[in-house]
């Protein structure tokens, strides 16, 4: 087992480097990089506050909106594009191996500090959405398996499939119209906490926090019920048809004991072991439109803005961190298989 863990940890390194390498060259070779964007800004927004500090560094530019060669070279040096693409690649890789991700081009803050700043929003959405999905979908899937073919099973299947087909952002708009100032003013329209959050008591802070995340969490969770509940149902149905269940019934074991001491453990193996990957998926993806609709400043919006503005340190830094976390989550999932069912092992025999 230790040999398997060591092998998987060593495989993370070439996998991570390969993913970073492919994305680096694809994004770097794409047109409209930070140099081109800054040149365009300096040409069209001469009095812009955003480019005032940078234009002071690179000098004045001509009134015919054409930058001279010296100014262009200064811009390239400012963003590190005075070096060749392979030199930039090896420099980035050597820094990332030491977990040095540099500073954002436009926010003037380190990538790690920027991620820490946006992390509370994403943690809130990802954690509570995943817990809500598991707490509802698992009992629902078990009920559907034990009552397979019943009218409630069919009706619930239709409802969850329709909910899964409904886009989360559309459902979010519907919730806002109904519960956030449209028909009923029950929940806040934006933000993770209220403006007077720091002045509230501990109970008041918890209440205010949960009050703000209710609608976004419901929106993110609505599409996850179908996949997990049907997975649980099919997993239980598969176990219920196996020979050991029939043999236990022949021996006179009660249905309750068969279900909770034999079927439940084997059927839940796949569901529990996939939790790290599911949580990570909810944590880092699928929240961009929800963050925009509910005015939440999280990792989804950060990634979108970074790609839009070609903020390469943020793009590659977040990609490196989240890919590493994804690979570790995959390893944890495999280890959970062994923890739940000792019959499973990854060591070679003979």
From TrEMBL:
Subcellular location: Cell membrane
InterPro entries recorded: MetI-like, MetI-like_sf
Membrane-related topology note: Multi-pass membrane protein
One GO BP: transmembrane transport
TM region(s), chain numbering: 9-30, 123-143, 155-184, 209-232, 267-294, 314-340
GO cellular component, one term: plasma membrane
Main localization, broad class: membrane
Top-level taxon of the source organism: Bacteria
All copies of domain ABC transmembrane type-1, residue ranges: 119-337
UniProt keyword terms in alphabetical order: Cell membrane, Membrane, Transmembrane, Transmembrane helix, Transport
Family: Belongs to the binding-protein-dependent transport system permease family.
Protein name: Microcin ABC transporter permease
Lineage: Bacteria, Pseudomonadati, Campylobacterota, Epsilonproteobacteria, Campylobacterales
């Amino acid at each position: 087992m230790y040999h398997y863990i060591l092998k998987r940890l060593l495989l993370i390194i070439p996998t991570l480097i390969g993913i970073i390498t492919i994305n680096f060259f694809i994004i770097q070779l794409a047109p409209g990089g930070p140099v081109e964007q800054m040149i365009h800004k300096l040409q069209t927004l001469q009095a812009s506050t955003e480019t005032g500090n940078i234009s002071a560094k690179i000098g004045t530019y001509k009134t015919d909106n054409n930058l001279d060669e010296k100014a262009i070279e200064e811009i390239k040096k400012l963003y590190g594009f005075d070096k060749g693409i392979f030199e930039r690649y090896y420099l980035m890789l050597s820094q990332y191996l030491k977990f040095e991700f540099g500073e954002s081009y436009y926010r003037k803050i380190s990538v790690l500090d920027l991620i820490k700043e946006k992390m509370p929003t994403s943690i809130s959405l990802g954690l509570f959405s995943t817990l809500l999905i598991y707490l509802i979908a698992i009992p629902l899937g078990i009920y559907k398996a034990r009552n397979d073919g019943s009218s409630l099973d069919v009706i619930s299947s239709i409802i969850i499939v329709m909910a899964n087909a409904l886009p989360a952002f559309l459902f979010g708009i519907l919730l806002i119209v109904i519960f956030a100032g449209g028909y009923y003013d029950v929940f806040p329209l934006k933000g993770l906490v209220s403006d007077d959050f720091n002045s509230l008591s501990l109970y008041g802070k918890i209440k205010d926090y949960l009050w703000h995340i209710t609608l976004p969490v419901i929106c993110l969770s609505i599409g996850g019920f179908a996949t997990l509940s049907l997975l649980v149902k099919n997993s239980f149905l598969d176990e219920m048809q196996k020979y050991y269940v029939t043999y236990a019934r022949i021996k006179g074991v009660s249905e309750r004991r068969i279900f909770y001491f034999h079927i439940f453990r084997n059927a839940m193996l796949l569901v529990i072991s996939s939790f790290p990957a599911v949580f990570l998926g909810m944590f880092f993806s699928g929240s961009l439109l929800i963050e925009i609709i509910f005015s939440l400043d999280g990792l989804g919006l950060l990634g979108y803005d970074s790609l839009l503005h070609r903020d390469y340190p943020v793009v590659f830094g977040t990609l490196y961190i989240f890919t590493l976390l994804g690979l570790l989550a995959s390893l944890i999932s495999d280890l959970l298989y062994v923890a739940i069912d000792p019959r499973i092992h990854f060591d070679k025999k003979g």
